[in-house]
Amino acid sequence: MAVQMKGKDILSIHDLSREEVRQILDTARVLKIKKLTGEVFQPLKGKTLGMIFQKASTRTRISFEVAMWQLGGYALYLNAADLQLRRGETIADTARVLSRYLDALMIRTYAHQDVVELAAYSDIPVINGLTDLLHPCQALSDLFTIEEKKGTLAGLKLVYVGDGNNMAHSLMYAGAKVGMHVTVCCPPNYMPDAEVTRLAREDAAASGAVIDIVHDPVSAVKDADIIYTDVWASMGQEEEHAKRVKIFAPYQVNRDLVEKAKPDVMIMHCLPAHRGEEITDEVLDDRRSIVFDQAENRLHVQKAILALII
Ligand code: CP
Ligand code: NVA
């Protein structure tokens, strides 16, 4: 039975039901096949997506723009610095105005609360294209990629090695929803947010997933089906880079660490990667690395999201 998702905001995977996550993944599979077989599918003719960016982006911007185009619609890139937002127009007024022109909004920004506020005042669905707290579109795409490669999600073990950041949070929520165990292995002072951890564990209790936070990478990756990493200094933390590089050095995903995992472990990274920091060239370019499939699948999964919510 299809779940009705028209008008739904995609702010956090925690807010989605298991059925909604399943529907996004199943729709993405159908849309990926349509794309590969050249079948034109344009349910969004005449529809528009506004994309507000307060931070840089390669994958998110381009995959959303191409997604709208392929679905028959149109996407507008809105640099936040060029909007009246920068001059003090409120988020609430911006939301009300943009709702009169557009059919959906995507936003990439710093404070997660800003996205929540934008969604609260918008009459149109709002998609979180990354905040300091969460990156749901990436983690949903990652579920799709893992399922595509492994044929299943429940019972797998994903070990995220690095900073307890937006990516770690969304992977915890994602695993918890679908029954995939997620271990975050991070330095003691760079743990995931306590409230996100609590909510992820609540969802995990319902799905059978285990959400763990540990600090020793070697023991963490032992039974890993997937090793996932992300940059040590996220967007907005550039000034902490030098300090973080020292603290995170023992958490580098390199050949020694990968050898401690299962022989068929898959290597994942949301990209962009800082080669030689959180991951070595050798591992990123290894045959077990699926980072470019992850990047590609952003397109298919976001097409599914757009087709379902608009
Ligand atoms: N992974 C990801 O969101 O990439 P961009 O920052 O390039 O959008
Ligand atoms: N944690 C990273 C993810 C980039 C896609 C950041 O926020 O910069």
Describe this structure as you would to a colleague.
By secondary structure, this protein is of the alpha/beta class. It folds into two domains: about 140 residues, Rossmann fold (3-Layer(aba) Sandwich); about 160 residues, Rossmann fold, CATH 3.40.50. The strands form two sheets. Strands 7-6-5-8-9 form a five-stranded parallel beta sheet. Helix 2 packs across helix 12 and helix 5 packs across helix 12. The radius of gyration is 19 Å and the shape is globular.
- For the record, the CATH class of the largest domain is Alpha Beta
The helix content is 40-55%
Give Rg in angstroms: 19 Å
Strand tally is 9
Small-molecule components bound: phosphoric acid mono(formamide)ester, norvaline
CATH topology of the largest domain: Rossmann fold
Order of strands in the sheet with most strands? 7-6-5-8-9
Instruction: Report the major sheet.
Output: 5 strands, parallel
Order of helices and strands: HEHEHEHEHEHEHEHEHHEHH
Q: What is the fourth-level CATH superfamily of the largest domain?
A: Aspartate/ornithine carbamoyltransferase
Instruction: Flag low-confidence runs.
Output: none
CATH architecture annotation name of the largest domain: 3-Layer(aba) Sandwich
Overall structural class, as computed from helix and strand content, comes to alpha/beta
Strand content: 5-15%
Number of domains: 2
The gross shape turns out to be: globular
Helical stretch count?
12
Terminal CA distance reads 19 Å
